[in-house]
Amino acid sequence: MGEAVPATVESHYRDEIPLPDGDRYAVRRREAVQEFFRAGGFPTATQEDWRFSDLDGLGRTAYRRYPELTGLRLPEPGELPAWTSEFEHRVLLAEGSTLNAADFRAGNGLAFGDLPIVPAEEEEDDWGFVAPAAETNGAGADLDAPLRHPLEMVNAGLFDCGFRVRVGRDEDAGPVLLYSLRRESGHPHMLHPRSVVELAPGSRLTVVEAHDGASETAGWTNPSTLCRLGENAELRYVRVELETGNIAHTGRVTFQLARNARVRSTVLSLTGGKSRTDTAAILTAEGAEVDLQGLFLGVNAAKSDQHTLAIHAARHTTSRQLFKNVLSDEASAVFDGKVVVAPGAIGTDASQANRNLLLSRKAAVHTRPRLEINADDVKCAHGAAIGKLDEDALFYLRSRGLGRMDSHEILVRGFAGEVVEKVPVAAVRGLAKEGLTRVRESRSFAS
Amino acid sequence: MTPLLQISGLHVEVEGREILRGLDLEIPLGETHAVMGPNGSGKSTLAHVIAGREGYEITRGVIRYGGEDVSELEPEERARKGVFLAFQYPVEIPGVNNTYFLKAAVNEIRKHRSQPELDAVDFLSLMRDRVKLLDFDEDLIKRPVNEGFSGGEKKRNEILQMTVLEPTLAVLDETDSGLDIDALRIVAEGVNRMRSPERSFLVITHYQRLLNHIVPDRVHVLQDGRIVESGGGDLALRLEAEGYGKPAAVPA
After folding, report:
1. Does the distance separating the beta carbons of A400 and B96 come in below 8 Å?
2. If interface means Cβ-Cβ distance under 8 Å, which residues of chain B face chain A?
3. Which of A79, A295, B1, B167 is the most exposed, fewest CB within 10 Å of its CB?
4. Distance from CA of B240 to the nearest CA of A (A)
5. Are B216 and B192 spatial neighbours (Cβ–Cβ below 8 Å)?
6. Which range of residues forms the domain containing residue B20?
């Protein structure tokens, strides 16, 4: 491996980086980056969807990519955090590698593999997956909007490791851990992991996607995950953001649901840096249901942006959203939630709630629920709340002998519990508890 | 003998308004006293200030408990010394399990008394015992604190907490409000079972009705932030018949 070549995203566009040998999809990838710049390049804060997400600098920084980083060793399975060992299937999405480091086993109806770069619809369908098809009687739903997300295009163009998990028809599998680890390289470097999760009709799967690691030098992590569900499939998806230090995280997860498919998703943000996650659900056929939840436990200057998009493209589809933020110190959060009801999607049932607990006067939150309803006979509810801990409740607990700090902690845990208790994996609930301990130990707690 | 609770010349301001204006009250250990008074007389302020609520500023006077000036103590410090307030409006605490909360409270208080903490098994058997006595729906103890409880269930939950925490001074703030006659009887029985020479009660109420079930040793009338009259149980009956009327004349 020669001397590392720093490169901005744009320099890939300008053909400054030679195409890697043996990458038969290299041209296609470069086209994705070119498409990104044709579409306007990095969004700026003047764009509605990016008002609170400052991407300034991402486009200008000369990030290195694996394998341009020399001397970076992949972690051995034993070096991964203890909580990851509770998973039967672990996949390491690290520094350009998928499978090398972590032990993983196939079986139990699961198939794993490196991700081919061809779009899914061009592949042979040899395992019974039926691609979701839109059933609206109108033409208003833009089902591909999440896939044209600007940073999705960057990921598609630059992804350096890709992984696919499939679960076969009527199988019940998981939990699978997709674990991405950033290690200190001494150089600014960027990661673009890409995962596809596919559930055949009637199957059930639990997937945890975690992004971990710390970096003092500037880093950018830009992962994409696409989850496709066949009819009657059920996915429980948990995303954990654990990165700390000088890292900008911009991630996306998109769910495509066929008839009567169900997704229950939780984004647990424990980031110590700055993180933005876009969660999109495309309900393409009758009876599809999503329940999207999120919890951010913010201390110091951590920032978490949660953007959601639920597209009701068929009749009688349901979406629920509940995003909560606990903000201490100077932590800040954004919730920007959008529900789109396509013409003809009658019987849509959508609800959206954003609740915020501010533990410090310097903490800040921007909340913006948005509804776009183009059909009759639909039920849509949304609401947002921002507040401090309830003084009456604090007095109530203290009047029973519980100390001031403990009373604050009990109330914060109670607030977070609504989301944490629904997380289907004990190891992840343990991470949330650690996050709550950091909140208790934060400077502004109970001050 | 020093009274368990001794309040002298107490002036209390809430949000800059003086609510209690020179209140005197003594409750010896082992006695049950009732404080009655019309709306706005300062009954709930008295309850809260005994429990140590923040924002209730004592501008003059003192609250002694067991001979000690507790005026400046935090609410939890008073609770650990054996003060209990049954709230007029028990607070709903979403996401906090009733049993978990009560176990934490019991063990906090036991720790203060240098008693060993109760483990889950011991605590549960203690709860079962008390729940049965109060005819309390056992499902409610597994739910979040007071969340979705009816008015009567909330009040019974207060008494349940009292029987588990075993305070030395229990202040009941309008525990009868919102209770039907059956619930009232159950609550009163719960209180009466706990009466002992080692424990005192301060029963704050608007109506005499409760005092048919919890018969007090003394009755005090609170009006305009002061105790204006004190007497035996017959005083409550007289007030019920005649009403509180206009404030009693106070010598200048």
Report:
1. no
2. 51-55, 74-76, 78-80, 84-85, 87, 90-91, 93-96, 101-102, 104-105, 108-109, 112, 144, 161, 165
3. B1
4. 31
5. no
6. 5-242
Q: Do the domain assignments include residue B238?
A: yes
In a domain, A241, yes or no: yes
Smallest CA-to-CA distance from B169 within B38, B88, B50, B59 is with B50
Q: What CA–CA distance (Å, rounded) separates A256 from A245?
A: 33
The SS3 call for residue A197 is strand
| CB neighbour list of residue B130: distance below 8 Å, 6 or more residues apart | B136, B160, B163, B164
CB contact under 8 A, A399 and B51: yes
**Cβ of A397 and B51 within 8 Å?**
no
Write the pLDDT tens digit of every residue in A160-214: 667 778 888 888 987 889 888 887 778 888 888 888 898 999 999 999 999 998 8
Q: Which of B91, B98, B154 should be substituted to probe chain A, the one whose Cβ sees the most A Cβ atoms within 10 Å?
A: B91
Asked if A416's CB is within 8 angstroms of B95's CB, the reply is: yes
Could you tell me if residue A399 is inside a domain? no
* Contact between chains at B95 and A413 (C-beta distance less than 8 A): yes
Q: Considering only CA atoms, give the Rg of chain A.
A: 21
Among the partner residues A392, A402, A416, nearest to B105 by beta-carbon distance: A402
**ipTM associated with this complex:** 0.95
Quote the number of domains for chain B: 1
- Overall number of domains in chain A: 1
To the nearest whole Å, the CA of B113 is away from the closest chain A CA by 12
> Where does A123-203 show beta strands of DSSP type E?
161-167, 172-182, 189-191, 193-199
Among chain A residues, the shortest Cα distance to B102 is held by: A400
* Percent of chain B topping pLDDT 70: 97
Q: Which of A392, A403, A418 sits opposite B91 (nearest CB)?
A: A392
CATH code assigned at B77: 3.40.50.300
Q: Is the previous residue joined to B28 through a cis bond, with omega within 30 degrees of 0?
A: no
Tell me the residue range of the domain where A118 lies: 9-389
